[in-house]
């Protein structure tokens, strides 16, 4: 791989994207190693370093390497974040395959041909460097880090079939991501791509090595971001289910508000019980409307504030009628009525009303504009 590969007219096979933050010591080791391995495997490639204006001047170091090696450097002055850095690198690429790997030597450079070739040969659309399959490993990890890593993987089980969804080492056919919209929060760009694009993929065993220089930037804040990101991805994959669960949760919150208000107004103000109920119902309904609009429904905020409220109110009233209908029917026309199971009957009524309200809210209130 020679320097002029970057500008040569024939297409590059691969862009290796290295996101960096304070990796000035590591990058001069990584780049020659990568070039050497690719050269040997006769893969035409380049390195794209995406640095977030590191205080240790990683960007300058990378720029110097560009004199000798096929390296492009992006320095982002106003943005910070691993996943978006990687996306910036991918956008810069014009190669057939894009790779993301850590710049600190944790992901084995020698594995690159095994990661890239299956995609160049059109056998798979993506490959993932994996610690948790036969042949993979982690170097000297303390128990606690293993547990955290396994837990982080476990909670992605509903999203992906990857055995190691947090390894961070991936190669992907660029055409699969070219015109896609991604919305990663935080670090997990691999998960983001795998869930939203759903490419065919091969897992390649790797041994994850500890970094030699510098320190990890994986902070507590990033771990919280990880959970927020997962919520978004679950929402993407199972939109209606997630909306329904949130809707039910909001319903419970509303119930607590409703009962609390009745209790307060009755015991401390001495209002008439029916009036207490009307006020409790109205406050709970308003609360539920706003929570559903802002949180439960993915397109909730597109609803017109006032018209949406009226529609929600109407749906809830119809839901109440449906509930009364169910309760009446069960009581009059089934054996449940004879057995005086009024709580069971009412509970079924509430369930039916919840489903009715959910469907009504989704279809008539928070439908969002067609996409
Ligand atoms: N541009 C940019 N901006 N790069 C960043 C940023 C950022 O804000 N934060 C981290 N990086 C770069 C680092 O310089 C490094 O090249 C890579 O992203 C990974 O960061 P580390 O700080 O080395 O993270 P880690 O070793 O704790 O975590 C790695 O291993 C985990 C598996 O245990 C990452 O690969 C994780 O994705 C992975 O889950
Ligand atoms: Mn690392």
**Domain unit count:** 2
Which descriptor suits the 3D outline?
A: elongated
- Uncertain segments of ≥5 residues (pLDDT<50)? 1-8
The CATH C-level name of the largest domain is Alpha Beta
Q: Would you tell me the structural class of the helices and strands?
A: alpha/beta
First-to-last CA distance: 45 Å
Number of strands: 9
Give the cofactors and ligands. Answer: guanosine-5'-diphosphate-alpha-D-mannose, manganese (II) ion
Query: What sequence of helices (H) and strands (E) makes up the elements?
Result: EHEHEHEHEEHEHEEHHHHHH
* Portion in helices: 40-55%
- The second-level CATH architecture of the largest domain is Alpha-Beta Complex
How many individual helices? 12
Strand content: 5-15%
CATH topology of the largest domain: Spore Coat Polysaccharide Biosynthesis Protein SpsA, Chain A
The biggest beta sheet reads: 7 strands, mixed
Key structural traits:
Spore Coat Polysaccharide Biosynthesis Protein SpsA, Chain A, about 375 residues, binds manganese (II) ion, alpha/beta, disordered N terminus, two-stranded parallel sheet, seven-stranded mixed beta sheet, binds guanosine-5'-diphosphate-alpha-D-mannose, about 50% helix
Short description:
It contains twelve helices and nine strands. It has helices at residues 27-40, 58-65, 82-92, 112-120, 143-154, 189-197, 220-237, 239-269, 273-296, 305-333, 335-338, 342-365, and strands at 14-20, 45-51, 71-75, 97-100, 126-130, 137-138, 170-173, 201-205, 207-208. Helix 2 (58-65) links the parallel strand 2 and strand 3.
Q: Would you give an account of this structure?
A:
The protein is an alpha/beta fold and 371 residues long. The protein folds into two domains: 3-236, Alpha-Beta Complex (Spore Coat Polysaccharide Biosynthesis Protein SpsA, Chain A), CATH 3.90.550; 239-365. 52% of the residues lie in helices and 11% in strands. The chain is built from twelve helices and nine strands. A seven-stranded mixed β-sheet has the order 3-2-1-4-7-5-8, with helices on both faces. β2, α2 and β3 form a beta-alpha-beta unit. α7 crosses α8 (239-269), α8 (239-269) packs antiparallel against α9 (273-296) and α10 (305-333) packs antiparallel against α12. The two termini are 45 Å apart. The model is unreliable at 1-8 (pLDDT under 50). Manganese (II) ion binds next to loops.
């Amino acid at each position: 791989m020679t320097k002029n590969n970057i500008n040569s007219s024939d297409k590059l096979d691969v862009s290796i994207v290295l996101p960096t933050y304070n990796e000035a010591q590591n990058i001069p080791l990584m780049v020659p190693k990568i070039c050497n391995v690719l050269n040997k495997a006769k893969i035409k490639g380049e390195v794209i370093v995406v640095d977030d204006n590191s205080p240790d001047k990683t960007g300058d170091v990378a720029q110097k390497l560009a004199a000798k090696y096929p390296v492009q450097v992006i320095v982002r002055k106003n943005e910070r974040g691993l996943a978006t850095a990687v996306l910036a690198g991918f956008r810069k690429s014009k190669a057939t395959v894009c790779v993301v790997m850590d710049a600190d030597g944790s992901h084995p450079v020698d594995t690159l041909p095994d990661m890239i070739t299956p995609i160049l040969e059109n056998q798979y659309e993506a490959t993932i460097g994996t610690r948790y399959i036969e042949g993979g490993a982690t170097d000297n990890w303390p128990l606690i880090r293993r547990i955290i890593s396994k837990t982080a993987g476990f909670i992605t089980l509903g999203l992906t079939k990857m055995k190691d969804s947090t390894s961070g080492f991936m190669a992907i056919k660029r055409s699969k991501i070219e015109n896609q919209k991604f919305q990663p929060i935080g670090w997990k760009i691999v998960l983001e791509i795998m869930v939203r694009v759903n490419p065919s993929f091969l897992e390649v065993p790797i041994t994850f090595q500890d970094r030699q220089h510098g320190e990890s930037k994986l902070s507590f804040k990033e771990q919280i971001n990880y959970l927020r990101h997962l919520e978004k991805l679950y929402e993407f994959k199972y939109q209606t289910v997630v909306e329904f669960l949130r809707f039910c949760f909001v319903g419970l919150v509303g119930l607590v508000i409703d009962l609390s208000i009745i209790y307060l107004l009755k015991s401390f103000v001495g209002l008439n019980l029916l009036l207490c109920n009307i006020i409790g119902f109205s406050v709970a309904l308003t609360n539920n409307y706003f929570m559903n609009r802002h949180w439960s429904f993915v397109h909730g905020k597109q609803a017109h504030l006032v018209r949406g409220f009226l529609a929600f109110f109407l749906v809830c009233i119809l839901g109440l009628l449906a509930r009364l209908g169910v309760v009446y029917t069960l009581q009059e026309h089934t054996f449940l009525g004879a057995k005086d199971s009024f709580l069971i009957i009412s509970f079924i009524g509430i369930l039916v009303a919840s489903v009715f309200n959910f469907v009504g809210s989704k279809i008539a209130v928070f439908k969002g504009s067609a996409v």
